[in-house]
Automatic annotation (TrEMBL):
The chain crosses the membrane at residues 9-42, 48-68. It comes from Roseateles oligotrophus. The keyword Membrane applies. This is Membrane protein implicated in regulation of membrane protease activity. One of its GO terms (biological process) is proteolysis. Keywords: Hydrolase, Membrane, Protease, Transmembrane, Transmembrane helix. The lineage of its organism: Bacteria, Pseudomonadati, Pseudomonadota, Betaproteobacteria, Burkholderiales. One of its GO terms (molecular function) is peptidase activity.
Length: 142
């Protein structure tokens, strides 16, 4: 059995995807895209140099674009206040009574939770939005 250039590109592409699954480095997926471009160039009958150039251009461009996107996107919110991590962030709760220290007990998702006011001024009873969760305590604001 003879392994042609396209098969070699696909094998390297698969290895990069497998390593990415183990490490979580999204950059490896971008390099795998480059290998896929090299494989497609091989399927089109282009020579080894053209295959390498296609792989380098696609993979390198994908890595550069991903890196720029990450730099411009800033740092993600901490896990305790990130709605992508906790679906509770941004949900509404009703506070019937606030204690003098700015804490309260609220009913949320069928259970009693301790809550703490994070906003400015003195909290009044009413509807609040969950801003973050510290341990088992909800941090609330209007």
């Amino acid at each position: 059995m003879e392994i042609n250039h396209a098969t070699t590109w696909w094998i390297v592409c698969g290895l990069l995807v497998a390593v990415e699954l183990g490490t979580g480095s999204f950059y490896l997926l971008m390099l795998a895209l480059g290998c896929a471009a090299g494989a497609l160039a091989a399927h089109l009958g282009l020579g080894g140099t053209a295959q390498t150039v296609a792989a380098a251009l696609v993979g390198g461009t994908a890595v550069a674009l991903w890196h720029l996107k990450r730099q411009r996107g800033g740092r993600p919110a901490p896990a305790q206040s990130n709605p992508d991590v906790s679906l509770d962030i941004g949900q509404r709760v009703f506070v019937e009574h606030w204690r003098a220290d700015g804490s309260a007990q609220v009913r949320y998702r069928g259970a009693d939770w301790q809550a703490r006011f994070q906003g400015q001024g003195r909290p009044e009873p009413g509807a609040f939005v969950i801003q973050a969760i510290e341990g088992s305590q909800l941090l609330l604001d209007r």
